[in-house]
Amino acid sequence: MAAATSPTSTKLDVEAVRRDFPILQREVYDRPLVYLDNAASTQKPRAVIDAVATFYETTNANIHRGVHRLSQEATDQFEDAREAMRDFLGATKVEEIVFTRGTTEGINLVAMSYGRANVGAGDEILITHMEHHSNIVPWQLLCEQTGAQLVVAPINDDGEIDMDAFASLVSERTKIVSVGHVSNALGTINPIAEIGRLAHEVGAVLVVDGAQGCPHGAVDVQALGADFYACSGHKMYGPTGVGVLYGRHDLLEAMPPYQGGGEMIRTVTFEKSTYAPSPAKFEAGTPNIAGGVGLGAAARYLQSIGLEAIERHEAELLAYGTERLAEVDGLRMVGTARRKAGVMGFVMDCAHPHDIGTILDREAVAVRTGHHCAQPVMDRFGVPATSRASLGIYNTREEIDALVDALQQVREVFGG
Ligand code: C6P
Questions:
Q1: Is 343 helix (H, G, I), strand (E, B) or coil?
Q2: C-alpha to C-alpha distances, 217 to 39, 286, 336, nearest whole angstrom
Q3: Whose C-alpha lies nearest to ligand 1, atom 16?
Q4: How far is the centre of ligand 1, averaged over its atoms, from the C-alpha of 104 (Å)?
Q5: Which of 46, 194, 339, 359 lies in disulfide reach of 189, CB 3.0 to 4.6 Å?
Q6: How high is the pLDDT of residue 416?
């Protein structure tokens, strides 16, 4: 792995970072790939690819149950990855890190385990208008099952939470507050610590959807005041099908299991089973072992570059991208919050987002188009869909220029 920067250095060496990602060497339609779909899924550095391949080549075995050497080594590697994620998220104990399939499963776990045990008729779950479907539907399911009420805090025209309205919606009835760290559709970075204070004042727990938070800057679950923080490996340069849920230890210990099966028990008889302590209690069945090992490698890779350097790099690119997109006639940005991560969602007066995406694709520029699994956000801004360019650690100003050039082609094709 190239030493792109040291954690303390100020500037990220983007060319060194790019050399760490083999896929960036490939061409699309005989042109260099311009990958601006990082909010959907990031590319994988050699460190992650090697960690997964080496695991299968040298260590592969089931974990936590074998006395043989490979099983012990596989267990050690998987648990080492848990430690890497503990450190990455600033949790105090490894017992607070539960491996999941990703953010979606993490939030469902909290809803179905903590929620069913602690929420009842007349209680409220507070979310915001900018949430991803993964942070809406699990709470709707919980409300259907318990008779609780889903309350939605409004957002303003820039795509920021209206914090006065939010504060007025927090009450003694609020049992769970669940908010995205960073909006995938708007890029807004939410004031999580402030939201946590409001939640805790009334004894509610704070769940943070960290899918778009942890890839782009340092996360400290304690400083954020998060009681739960869910994230996905594939959005932080790690493998797909694996993620983690951070949960405060006392909460996890008190929560009932979410799924039953092997691994999560202490004893089983037909009359009654008893359960293992967390995190095993929430990890029924054989997990994605190689994926977990790859996720640990991704966390350490990001730390080796430096989370502050990553944040600064993406903030500079976002500022440049916002400026350059403003040059495109008829383009309107959707999501103009003061605190934003590298997500640029936009519409154009001359073309539908899907047509924009198709033309950009022919120019080898990969963006996502659609509702981004955030239909209420689209409704709020009165658009059926947006095109979204989302930034990662390997993106460059030249790639933003390529995006803008391709958008000028869109204007030429569709007129205007
Ligand atoms: N957003 C996007 O293109 P999973 O699928 O479980 O890894 O992550 C779900 C999820 C939850 N919350 C937020 C804020 C997200 O952005 C995502 C995934 C992708 O924006 C795919 S829809």
A1: strand
A2: 14, 31, 19
A3: 184
A4: 8
A5: 339
A6: 62
Q: Which of 152, 143, 150, 133 is nearest to 112 (CA)?
A: 143
Instruction: Please determine, for residue 47, whether its predicted confidence score (pLDDT) is greater than 50.
Output: yes
Active site residues: 373
Q: Is the CB of 369 under 6 A from ligand 1?
A: no
* Torsion on CA atoms 339, 189, 88, 45, rounded to nearest 10: -80
pLDDT band for position 65 (50/70/90)? confident
pLDDT digits (tens, 9 = 90+) for 195-218: 999 999 999 999 999 999 998 999
Mean pLDDT of 251-256: 98
Asked if residue 75 has its Cβ within 6 Å of ligand 1, the reply is no
Nearest CA to ligand 1 atom 19: 40
Please give the full DSSP string across 199-245, using - where no structure is assigned. Answer: HHHTT-EEEEE-TTTTTTS---HHHHT-SEEEEEGGGTTS-SS-EEE
CA separation for the pair 128, 253 (Å, rounded):
28
Angle at 354 between CA 352 and CA 356, to 5 degrees: 70
Q: Which residue has the tokens 């017992």?
A: 95
In this structure, what token pair is assigned to residue 98? 């539960």
| 356 CA from centroid of ligand 1 (Å) | 22
Other CB atoms within 10 Å distance of the CB of residue 261: 11
pLDDT value of position 247: 98
Confidence of residue 9 (pLDDT cuts 50, 70, 90): low
- Domains of the chain plus CATH, in order, are 14-32+306-413 (3.90.1150.10), 49-303 (3.40.640.10)
- Please choose from 133, 373, 386 the residue to mutate so as to test ligand 1's pocket, defined by most ligand atoms within 8 A of CB: 373
Is the beta carbon of 137 within 6 A of some atom in ligand 1?
Answer: no
> pLDDT class for 229, splitting at 50, 70, 90?
very high
Nearest residue (CA) to ligand 1, atom 17: 211
| pLDDT tens digits, 177-198 | 999 999 999 999 999 999 999 9
For ligand 1, whether the C-beta of 181 sits within 6 Å is: no
Nearest CA to ligand 1 atom 2: 40
Q: Measured over all CA atoms, what is the biggest interatomic distance in the chain, rounded to whole angstroms?
A: 73
CA of residue 8 to ligand 1 center, whole Å: 30
